[in-house]
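Record now logged underneath.
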Amino acid sequence: MNKKIIISISVIAAIVILLFLKFGGSTTDDSEVLTEVKKGVFRMEVTTAGELDAKNSVEIMGPDGLRRAQIWQVKINDIVDEGTVVQKGGYIARLDQSEIGDKIQKEETDLQQTMSQYTQAKLDTALQLRKARDELINLKFDIEEKEIILSQSQFEPPAEIKKAEINVEKSKRAYNQAVENYRLQSEKAVAEVDEAAAKMMDDQNQRNFLRGLAEEFTVTAPEQGMVIYKRDWRGQKQGVGATIQPWDPVVAKLPDLSRMVSKSYINEVDINTVKVDQRVEIGLDAFPEKKLTGQVLEIANVGEQKPNSDAKVFQLLIEINESDTTLRPGMTTSNTIVSGEVADALFIPVESLHSQGDSISFVYKKDGLSATKQQVFLGQSNSDEVVILKGLSENDMVYLSDPEGMSEKEINMLEDSADKLASE
């Protein structure tokens, strides 16, 4: 009985081995990766990643007079958390006041000096003019004295009378010169006092300007809204420690969340396929279940260099049609730009396409138990698939990987290509 069981087991084992050698010993068929030629609507698509932003925003500005104060950058010492909802006039940020504080202190010192100079100028001119007035009075008395002497010399010799007359004329000339000098001294005194007053006023205005500017270093909201940090040219958020400059004093933004756009970048090789107003299908990484639509709003005319890359890209703005309260600036989007469609098209994956030289494209087509190298004419393409104008039929099977032993086989040329080669 045991002998029969052993014989039966041996026979079964032999059959299993034979079946394995016949069907499982060769992995050629299992290694074949095939795909079916599809027919339907073929879409030319360009896929890009983007980031949500508001189409319109109210900018929260820092101090407006930094250039006049010759302050070329100011650090943000404190700012509310991004996403904070603020009311109009509410606190937004506080800027570093160390530099403007030094300027105010210096201007206070300069103002004290010019005030002292103004006071000194008034005193000096007052003393000078008083002295000049006293001199005029004395000269006038001198004229009267000389005239009395002249009147008393009527009975004196003619020479004495002439001498007295000359003395009167000298006194009058001296008086007239003193009057003219007093007028010039008065004008000079007024000019000196006015100059000192102007310097004092300039310093006072500058001091008051700097004091007012310092108050603007506490930044408040111009409108109600949600605070979104500004991004610099590298795309980094400008939070605590960031700096603002006089030519761009924006501290943060209050976006209008009712109209959103997706900021994206498109590679230079795809720039000719994308046009304004093309339809876009938009997905949100944060909410995969949400499907939005939009259209291309704007395409940059000038490309730019990607960091750490040799590729040139063009900025793309995509306006989102839907208004959704869950949309927030900074959310990542996946944008599929539909640049065109072909109805009733045959198409295959680009991985199954091969080329010989510059002009002949072919595929490895499944033909019964073997394969053939079949030439194909190509139409439109996208990043994943390509349209076949001629050479394949619907439901044909093509290889995604190169079948073994096919590299030396001849390509099955299409009639149009064969006729062309023959004519050449």
About this structure: Residues 100-215 form one domain. The first strand starts at residue 34 and ends at 36. The longest helix spans residues 158-215. The radius of gyration is 48 Å.
